[in-house]
Amino acid sequence: MSGFGVLLRRELALSWGRGGGPLLALAFYAATATLLPLAMGPEPARLAAIAPGSAWLALALASLLSLERLFERDYEDGALDLLALGPAPLELAAFAKCLAQWITAGAPLAVLAPVVAIALGAPPSLAPMIAVTALVGGIGFSFCGGIGAALSLGSRRGGVLIAVIVLPLFAPPVIFGAGAIDAYAAGLDWKTGLMLLSAYSLATLALGPFAMAAACRNALS
Amino acid sequence: MIVALEIENLAVARGDRLLFKGFGLALGAGEAVALTGRNGAGKTSLLRAIAGMIRPSAGRVAFRSAHGELPAEDARTRDLHLIGHQDGLKPGRTAWDELKFQVAWTGGTIASAEAACERLDLMRLRALEVRKLSAGQRRRLALARLVASPRRLWLLDEPLAPLDAERRNIFGALMREHLAADGLILAAVHDPLPIPARSAELTS
Amino acid sequence: MIAALANPRAFMRFSRWAAPTLGAIAAVLAAAGLWLDFTARPDYQQGYTVHIMFIHVPAAWMSLFVYGCLGVASFLGLVFRHALADAAARAAAPLGAGFTLLALATGSLWGRPMWGTWWVWDARLTSVLVLFLFYLGYMALDAAIDDEARASRACAILALVGLINLPIVHYSVVWWNTLHQGSSVFRADGPAMPLSYLAPLLTLTLAYMAAFGALWLVRIRSEVWRRRAAVLALRAAG
Question: Which chains touch A (3+ CB pairs under 8 A)?
């Protein structure tokens, strides 16, 4: 598995080094979160009610940002050819890319998520739950997003196309994650929601790479 | 370890267009073949079909080892270098980082990477970012992994185009060494190779 | 039968008579179904809105049925690399989107007088909406990739991923609703169906299926012709 280690380290360096690493995604997240009270009106009670959900939604959108570059750059400059002819199967390469994406963008976003939610008026007691769901859900967003990114390789529309493909796939983690936070806030059973979210994330982690590798091979052909 | 490449009756189509059909070639250890043909004849597609990326419409590509037929997947991922028009180098990274990765990925070591840098006159360029290199320098960097990672079959797509005459000769020496070590070379070219090679023409 | 149709020539011969026949059947069944629809006695609960239900429910069934057909065609295209299966999958998508849109629109029209709201976020409606979004994404992907063979395979992969995703979405909304409403899950189809309603419902369902069959065959035929024309044009260009 040394091939995987080499690749993961490279992907981490590449995702981190590009354009300020996670700063772009974090800035986008903060900006969308700022627009929300401007759109909904500053009434604290109303904002507080939707704060956790909106923070979660903005997180999903921010995760879409760096997807376009996940495979596209490698496809354009020929690095994907090299990945296809290496010691690790393309599935593992796809897995490494999405994992690196989660570590360099998803995790920082998950750290920012409770801050954003509290800034929007959520009670601070929700912070740990929001952070955990954002971290776990971030895996789902990275791997589902990777499927969209791989499928739209070689297409003319890029970023927006990825979003359109991927948003139906984002529906379950958004529902599970926001639902878990809501349940936690209301004192209901939140463990089920968290488990469902984890199950979804694990499923995308396990199955996503196969779809991504198939899509990459299709693009290379 | 690939000792022979056999192509029988190969046909490749791109979209609805049939590029070529009935192509056959047998390449053994220590042999080099220069693939010629006009632009658009399908030289790049042929190389990619051998590398397994394009599925041929007809015919087969077989790799032989000393013990019989080699499973294509093993041959392609362990014993084959494909150098196309693009070099797969990331602009923001240093030349040395990129070479280290490419060599580690294709089965070489740091020591062999350094040796390759010496041979291809890249030592002074190592700390530079890839985007600061000229076309010739990038090409030499891309070719370095051929020397650093020991894979038997070289599939080269117009490898020497951006290089000057002196560097071509240097690379010619490397190709001769590779053939002497039982390597196989299939290169798509417009100009003659700096080493003696059979010629195979791709006609549509 | 699918294997027999796999040969493009056999398919073209079959669809030449099958498409107009199905079209005629669809027209007859639609006329019959609509007549049964408008002569059905209004339900004491649903009132006159029951007429919309007969158009809505089969449309919703069809949106899922077409999705299933698309999934099967995608699978066959992926596994057997069959151009006709690929073409069939891509041809089905706009038809599926159309049925889904019809279901969503008529569902809203039906729901407003019934429950006083244009929309409600229960599992069934949300799933149909996500299905509609899936169709849009599928058609967008198809349109965005120039190379046809690649577009077909990419769309086929998307279809299979979406096929797995839809039940998950459905379940997630079921779970989410149990959170908010306890154990009373919103039932979107109202009370049980009296027998006199089954006739128009089934007739219109069959009409929709026949219409889908006709339109699908026509679309696949035009795809086959288009490819033949493209090949001829390329050959003429030399």
Answer: B, C
* DSSP states along A155-187: -S-THHHHHHHHHHHHHHHHHHHHHHHHHHHHT
C-beta separation of C43 from C194 below 8 A: yes
Amino acid type, B122: L
Q: Which residues of C touch B15 (CB under 8 A)?
A: 147-149
CA separation for the pair B46, B35 (Å, rounded)? 10
C91–chain B nearest CA distance, Å: 19
Give the chain B residue nearest A84 (alpha carbons).
B77
As beta bridge partners, residue B155 has: B82, B186
Residues in C touching A218 (Cβ below 8 Å) = 150, 153-154, 157
The question of ipTM being above 0.95 is answered as no
Q: Each residue's pLDDT tens digit in chain C (238 positions)?
A: 666 677 888 888 888 888 888 888 888 888 888 888 777 766 666 666 777 888 888 999 999 999 999 999 999 999 998 889 999 999 999 999 999 999 999 988 888 877 778 888 878 888 999 999 999 999 999 999 988 889 999 999 999 999 999 999 999 888 888 876 654 444 555 555 666 778 888 888 999 999 999 999 999 999 989 888 888 888 787 6
∠ CA(A147), CA(A151), CA(A152), 5° rounding? 120
Look at A10 and B101 and tell me if their CB atoms are within 8 Å.
yes
Q: For residue B106, which residues of chain A lie inside 8 Å, CB to CB?
A: 82, 85-86
C9 burial class (0-12, 13-18, 19+ CB within 10 angstroms)? Answer: exposed
The shortest C-alpha distance from C228 to chain B (Å) reads 9
Helix residue spans in chain A (DSSP H): 2-17, 23-40, 44-64, 68-77, 79-84, 90-101, 107-119, 127-151, 159-186, 191-220
State the Cα angle at A152 between A151 and A154, rounded to 5°: 115
Which residue does chain A place closest to B45, by CA atoms?
A221
Could you tell me which chains touch chain C, where touching means 3 or more CB pairs under 8 A? A, B
Contacts of A214 in chain C (CB under 8 A): 153, 157
Domain ranges of chain B: 1-79+152-204, 87-149
For domain B1-79+152-204, the question of CATH label 3.40.1480.10 is answered with no
**Partners of residue A14 in chain B, C-beta under 8 Å:** 90, 93
For residue B13, what are the β-bridge partners? Answer: B18
Q: Could you say which DSSP state residue B34 is in?
A: E
Give yes or no for B38 touching C (CB within 8 A): no
pTM for the predicted model, two decimal places: 0.90
